[in-house]
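Troubleshooting: if your tokenizer reports a length mismatch, compare your output against this known-good record of 130 residues.
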Amino acid sequence: MVEKNVVPDIRSYNAKLLGLALEKRSEEGAQLLQCRDKGFVNEGNLDEAKRWYGEIEKSSCALDKWTFETLVLFVCEMGDVEYAFELCKDIFQRRRLVGAALLQPVVDGLVKASMIEEANELVNLRNTNS
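Known-good structure output:
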């Protein structure tokens, strides 16, 4: 596509993902989705990063710790602490182990936004996570 000056869009990615799924190459499909998500983080595009995270989530791909760390920290930097809080709950729901260094900016952001109840919930999730 690049050689023919065609910019990939959601349709082209969907077609590629479908082809990979039909060939039972789901690991490559998961990597493709994760690369798109991380790419939008690098570009500073919050809306697209969130949209691709949703696509990854819908695909039932196993998200790795690095993807969560990258996205949570980016979302915090962009000031969307509510979404960062939801991501952190997803991390615990998926039973991923994360360190306090990842959660601290989210807790700090929640407190700054006067979302004390949510900050306490996140701290409690961390304390009870085994």
